[in-house]
Design a protein that fits this description.
By secondary structure, the protein is α+β, with helices and mostly antiparallel strands. 53% of the residues lie in helices and 7% in strands. Bound molecules: glutathione (GSH).
């Protein structure tokens, strides 16, 4: 298998699928396409049906979009989703909500792993997105079974890893229960490996370096 990925520092959808592949312990190669460079579009179109990363190649098969890649890997590694049907359904709902939503959070607080942590003002819409994420996490964590959202690490933790990184790098204050989960993500060896690779990258995507808070709604 081969995963086609963007910049480690900036590409949150790449991080999600890379984490799933690492946790699944599948053997895979990587092809990194730095994004928003003059030749990025041509490179993306050569490998990526939708012109976006991530893409998983398995022989001649190409699977694109993080959710489809997650499901493809989970068909072969069933431990990637929670075992119980109800928990699995909830985890899938959370991934779908992440995949389809949280536009203000994603726009205003771009993933930037190597950013020196520091607070930025956020709009009311972004604040509401953060509150919703925290609500989702706390519903899972409140019963004390942690440390991951459904006890053992699962795909839903990959989907929220970039959000935990954002809460950290933009110094968003959260309650202890939430912070414990953020810290768990930050201390995950795979997340740390990815961030170290991001820190070593030389490309700079200006728009992700200067987040400007949108005016409050
Ligand atoms: N829904 C897609 C989103 C993929 C996506 O937006 N990827 C970004 C990088 S994180 C990208 O390829 N951007 C490059 C571009 O739009 O030119 C997924 O879940 O995989």
């Amino acid at each position: 298998m081969r995963l086609i990925l963007g910049n480690c520092n900036y590409s949150s959808w790449s991080l999600r699928t890379w984490l799933i592949a690492r946790h699944a312990e599948v053997a895979f190669e990587e092809l990194r396409i730095p994004l928003y460079e003059p030749d990025s579009r041509t490179a993306l179109q050569a490998y990526c049906p939708a012109g976006k990363v991530p893409v998983l190649e398995d022989g001649v098969l190409r699977v694109w979009d993080s959710l489809a890649i997650a499901e493809y890997l989970a068909e072969r590694h069933t431990s990637l989703w929670p075992r119980a049907s109800a928990a699995r359904a909830r985890a899938r709902s959370m991934c779908a909500e992440m995949h389809a939503g949280f536009a203000a959070l994603r726009d205003e607080l771009p993933m930037n792993c190597r950013r020196t942590p520091g607070r930025v003002a956020v709009s009311a819409r972004c604040g509401a997105d953060i509150d919703r994420v925290v609500e989702l996490w706390d519903e899972c964590l409140a019963d004390g079974t942690g440390p991951w959202l459904f006890a053992d690490w699962s795909i839903v933790d990959a989907f929220f890893a970039p959000v935990a990184l954002r809460l950290h790098t933009y110094a968003i204050p959260v309650a202890d229960l939430t912070q414990t989960y953020v810290d768990k993500q930050l201390n995950d060896p795979f997340v740390q490996e990815w961030c170290a690779r991001g820190a070593a990258e030389i490309e700079v995507i200006e728009v992700a370096e200067k987040p400007v808070a949108a005016p409050a709604a």
